Amino acid sequence: MRIIAGSKRGMKLFSPKAQVSRPITDRVKESLFSILYKYDLPNGERTADLFCGVGSLGLEALSRGAGFVTFVEKDPKVIAILEKNIEKAGYAGESKVIRANAFKIGAPVNFDQQKYGLVFVDPPYAQTRDVGDASPLSGLLTLLGEQVTPDGIVVVRTYKHTELLEQYGRLEIIERRRWGTMAVTILQQGSR
C-alpha cells in the first residue's frame, strides 16, 4: 500500500502483519480520486476518514491537498500503525486520530463546529450488508448529513452487491461505481 499521487507520491504505508483490513488497490484509489476531482475535492477541504485502518484514503487526500483529516478507528493495534504512517508522511499537524466506533460518532465536529467537505466511510463489508432505515449504516449516514457542509461529499465503500437506499436523512446518492468486488457510492445533501 502506498500514496499514489500528490506531495507524498510513492510513499509506502506501514500495514498490519496479519491481514485484518481490505486495502484499496492503487488502480481503484486513482479512479476514486479522479471522480472526486470533478467535485473539486479534496482541494483544501476538512476531511474525515472513518473506519480508516492505516489511513490510506485520508493520507491520500492530504497528499492531494486536503486541509485537515480526522481519522476515526477503534482498533488500538491498527491505530499504532496509523500513527506511524501519519508521522512518516509528516502530517501530524494536519490530522487528528480519534479512537472510537465511527458508527456511534460519525465525523466528529470540533468545538468551533467546523463541518466536513469530504468524508470516507469504509466499514468492514459485513457491517454494510444491512442498509435499511434501522441499520447502523443508515444511522451513521443520517448523522453525517448533519456533519458535512451543504455541498460536502460522503464516499461509502461496500461489497459490490450492496445497494444503498437512495436517501439517508439529508444525504442523497449522486453517483455509484463498481470495481472488482467493491462498490463506491457517493452521497451529497439533497435539495430538500
Please provide a written account of the structure.
- The chain has a single domain, classed as Rossmann fold, CATH 3.40.50.
- The mean pLDDT is 93.
- It starts with 25 loop residues before the first helix and ends with a strand.
- The chain has an 8-stranded mixed β-sheet with strand order 3-2-1-4-5-8-7-6.
- It has 5 helices and 8 strands; from the N terminus they run αβαβαβαβαββββ.
- It is an alpha/beta fold and 192 residues long.
- The longest helix is centred in the middle third of the chain and has 14 residues, at 76-89.
- The protein has helices spanning 26-37, 56-63, 76-89, 102-105, 136-147; strands spanning 46-50, 68-73, 95-99, 116-121, 148-159, 167-168, 171-179, 182-189.
Total separate domains: 1
Bin the strand percentage. 25-35%
First CA to last CA: what distance? 40 Å
Anisotropy-based shape: globular
Write the CATH fold name.
Rossmann fold
Number of strands: 8
Which series of helices and strands comes N to C? HEHEHEHEHEEEE
The CATH class? Alpha Beta
Radius of gyration: 15 Å
Q: What would you call the quaternary organization?
A: single chain
Percent of residues in helices comes to: 25-40%
Largest sheet: 8 strands, mixed
Structural class: alpha/beta
CATH architecture: 3-Layer(aba) Sandwich
Helix segment tally: 5
- Write the CATH homologous superfamily: Vaccinia Virus protein VP39
